[in-house]
Amino acid sequence: MKLTHGSDGFSLIELLVALVILSVSLLGLASLMAMTTQTNSFGSHMTEATTFAQDRLEALRVTPWANVTGNADQVTGATGMRYNRNWVVNTNAAGNLRTVTITITWNDRTNHSIRLRSAIPQ
Q: What average pLDDT does this structure show over 72-89?
């Protein structure tokens, strides 16, 4: 069996170029994974915050009309994140409708907040 010239395999330079290309692509993939994890974490915190705001709103809806007042508290989510919850209640001029504004704030390296606004009729 006779080998032809140039079919001896890969040269060291070709192998090094291939390793550099592979390394650059793997570094890009690693940064993408880090960003994906951070985005998923933010989505989880946003979902928890929205759920806590809705829970407070539902509790205010079943509270007797005379006892619907503003207040604040702090709740901890399943992820261990602490959320500050503040709700403000305003009564309209006719006295038959209360507007509730619930604000949830949290900090996961950056300050975030959401606001839920609703009306509760008498």
A: 94
Give, as one character, the DSSP assignment of residue 72: E
- Show Cβ contacts of residue 52 under 8 Å, excluding neighbours closer than 6 positions: 75, 77, 83, 85, 104
Measured in degrees and rounded to the nearest 5, phi and psi for residue 34 equal -65, -45
Q: What is the pairing mode between strands 111-121 and 82-91?
A: unpaired
Burial of 71 (0-12, 13-18, 19+ CB in 10 A): exposed
CATH superfamily of 12-121: GSPII I/J protein-like (3.30.1300.30)
The pTM for the full model equals 0.73
**Paired residues of 99 in beta bridges:** 90, 119
- pLDDT score, position 34: 85
> Residue 54's Cα: distance from chain center in Å?
16
The residue ranges of every structural domain in the chain are 12-121
- Sequence-separated (6 or more) residues with CB below 8 Å from residue 65: 98, 122
